[in-house]
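Quick check before the chapter quiz. The format below is the same one you will see on the exam, so make sure you can read both the input and the output lines.
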Amino acid sequence: MKKMLMLLVAVTVVGCSGTQGEDATDIDGDVAAAIADINRQFMDCVSQGDADLCASLFTDDALYGAPNLPFAQGRAAIRDAWEKEIEAGMKSLRLMTDEVGSFGDTAHEVGRYVVEGSDDVHLDHGKYIVLWKRTSEGWRAHREVFNSDMASGPQD
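Here is the expected output.
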């Protein structure tokens, strides 16, 4: 019970310490700037087709939650997941941060994404949440979950 209460307090503090809107650098500026830099690296790794670079931006024991799939756990599995996404036609990734907050060596990010293929063909768009961890390598994605806003399956 005590651990649960501490977790709820930590989540509340982290949730209240963030920024919202297009300029997520007003509060927690150093953390937001570091995350923005890593997000640029994520976008670059997709445009370069470099799954190794994508995986290097995660912690060693990260979880990566793509829609309709089990979690990919660890850099090797995450590398394979990114490679499959790139091989499936992902050529461009745009990440738009809506909120960043930090609490010590942990940060959270809430944002939106757009994925395009060859010739700027729109493949997907949706939202994501990332828990970041400060490591000896700098900030790295530790837990990431995203899902599509595009309809799939039969519609009522």
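If your answer matched, good. The first strand starts at residue 19 and ends at 20.
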